[in-house]
């Protein structure tokens, strides 16, 4: 019974990672507050900016990250059952979805720039490029973490000792996903 209680209280990853993640989420919370305040101060500008957003790109990116998070969760579940080759396949699929996000974001940025929009146009586009650009950097870091997860699960000596790393990298990926959902809501929908 005590063993079950201890297992249910397990916090995935390492404590230091949680300090980073909570700090990062605080920074994004600040970004979201800035966006909301500016939206309140300049509603016409922000409404006009939203009309220039490609909802299709935003939806594809949202679906890509949600699907990647599903694959990360399935990969961790497989790794916990010592099915490392299956976990590796899930992490490869997650990487592909993350890469799709990057490609779509490239085409979205390209579309905006070709239409004459850049961070110097107005506050809407300044915040759009800065906040989505910082998020894109987080996705790229997440892709590197996924490559490391793929490598760990592909080693012949993969073992339960790899689980804390897989958990931590998975938590990071899920954070990136949650941050995008809020950005998607703020930029494309609300």
Give, in order, the helices and strands: HHHHHHH
Span between termini:
47 Å
Structural class: mainly alpha
Q: Which percent band covers the strand fraction?
A: under 5%
Describe the structure.
There is one protein chain. The chain is an all-alpha fold and 190 residues long. The chain is built from 7 helices and no strands. The chain has helices spanning 2-8, 15-41, 43-51, 55-80, 84-114, 123-154, 163-189. The radius of gyration is 19 Å and the shape is elongated. The protein starts with a helix and ends with a helix.
Short recap of the structure:
The protein is an all-alpha fold and 190 residues long. It has helices at 2-8, 15-41, 43-51, 55-80, 84-114, 123-154, 163-189.
Entry keywords:
0% strand, 190 residues, single chain, mainly alpha
Question: Layout of helices and strands, plus pairs?
Answer:
Elements: H1 2-8, H2 15-41, H3 43-51, H4 55-80, H5 84-114, H6 123-154, H7 163-189
């Amino acid at each position: 019974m005590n063993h079950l209680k201890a297992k249910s209280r397990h916090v995935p990853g390492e404590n230091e990672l949680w300090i980073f993640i909570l700090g990062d989420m605080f920074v994004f919370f600040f970004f979201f507050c800035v966006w909301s305040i500016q939206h309140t101060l300049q509603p016409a500008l922000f409404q006009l900016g939203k009309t220039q957003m490609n909802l299709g790109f935003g939806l594809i990116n949202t679906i890509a990250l949600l699907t990647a998070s599903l694959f990360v969760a399935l990969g961790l579940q497989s790794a916990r059952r010592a099915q490392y080759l299956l976990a590796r396949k899930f992490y490869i699929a997650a990487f592909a979805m993350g890469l799709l996000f990057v490609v779509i974001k490239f085409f979205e940025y390209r579309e905006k720039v070709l239409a004459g929009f850049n961070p110097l146009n107005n506050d809407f586009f300044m915040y759009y490029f800065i906040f989505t650009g910082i998020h894109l950097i987080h996705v790229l870091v997440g892709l590197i973490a996924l490559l490391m997860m793929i490598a760990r699960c592909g080693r012949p000596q993969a073992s339960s000792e790899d689980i804390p790393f897989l958990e931590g990298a998975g938590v990071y990926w899920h954070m990136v996903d949650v941050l995008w959902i809020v950005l998607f809501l703020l930029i494309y929908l609300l």
